[in-house]
Write a structure and sequence with these properties.
single chain; alpha/beta; eight-stranded parallel beta barrel; 12 helices; 8 strands; globular; binds phosphoenolpyruvate
Length: 251
């Protein structure tokens, strides 16, 4: 969208050991000032690597984020990670409501709403993920499903600073399939209308990312529509050169 600074975000999912910091090093060396002047970049490694990734990135302004968070600041929640803990080790973003969290951990819109409020409380920017399943698209319900997820998952008080919306059709994640450019444009226009209707000027300025099988070869096409303000990249973010290739296509 005109006047919105794009964001290219990578989600490593449950991939990465300490040696994967090589990928962060490679990103640092590939990162061109020109690209980072025009767009924001973010890497979300597994929680075990957030601190190391922040430390390794040091001089290059590529942000580091978490992949999920608990709504609370601390307490008896074994295995969970508070947004304040992510902030404490240098993260600035966190994904909420990724479809794999919704499916594998039964995270509902209500849970994602609470996690997003937690992210804001800590001072993190939340990337709220939404997207329809294959059945929902085939039934022609994709816009109403996504609108419902946004209504339920994005709390009142969302601003262009504290929230990014990522549209990720579940059937396009990790499958090599993508919607047509027209379908992406139509969904992003619908999301923009929802956000502007609810949040006014902040909604008009909020970044809306597309995610689902974005690769260097298709990035320029799938990210071309007016209301696509960047990408959320899974598989291709594990390769520094592929991830930079996508960033170059956006910048
Ligand atoms: C994702 O998990 O957010 C994603 C978009 O994955 P992929 O790029 O591998 O489809």
């Amino acid at each position: 969208t005109d006047g919105i600074r794009p964001l290219v975000a990578g989600n490593w999912k449950m991939n990465g050991l300490r040696r994967s910091v090589d990928t962060i090093e490679a990103l640092k060396s590939h990162a061109q000032e020109g690209v980072l002047e025009r767009i924001d970049m973010l890497v979300c490694p597994p929680a075990t690597l957030v601190a190391l990734a922040v430390k390794t990135m040091d001089t290059v302004p590529i942000h580091i984020g978490g992949q999920t968070c608990h709504p609370a600041e601390n307490g008896a929640h074994t295995g969970d990670i508070a947004p304040e803990m992510l902030l404490d080790v240098g993260a600035s973003y966190v994904l909420t409501g990724h479809s794999e969290r919704r499916t594998d951990h039964g995270e509902t819109d209500e849970v994602v709403h609470a996690q997003t409020l937690g992210a804001w409380r800590a001072g993190l920017c939340a990337i709220v993920c939404v997207g329809e399943t294959k059945d929902e698209r085939e039934a022609g319900n994709e816009v109403s499903v996504v609108a419902g997820q946004i209504a339920g998952s994005v709390p009142d008080g969302a601003t262009a600073e504290n929230t990014v919306v990522a549209y990720e059709p579940v059937w396009a994640i990790g499958t090599g399939l993508t919607p047509t450019v027209d379908d992406i444009a139509a969904m992003h226009d619908a999301i923009r209308a929802e956000l502007t209707n609810r949040f006014g000027d902040e909604g008009a300025k909020m970044r809306i990312l597309y995610g689902g099988s974005v690769k260097p070869g298709n990035a320029a096409d799938v990210l071309a529509p007016n209301n696509v303000d960047g990408a959320l990249v899974g598989g291709a973010s594990l390769s520094a050169s592929d991830f930079m290739g996508i960033a170059d296509a956006v910048a």
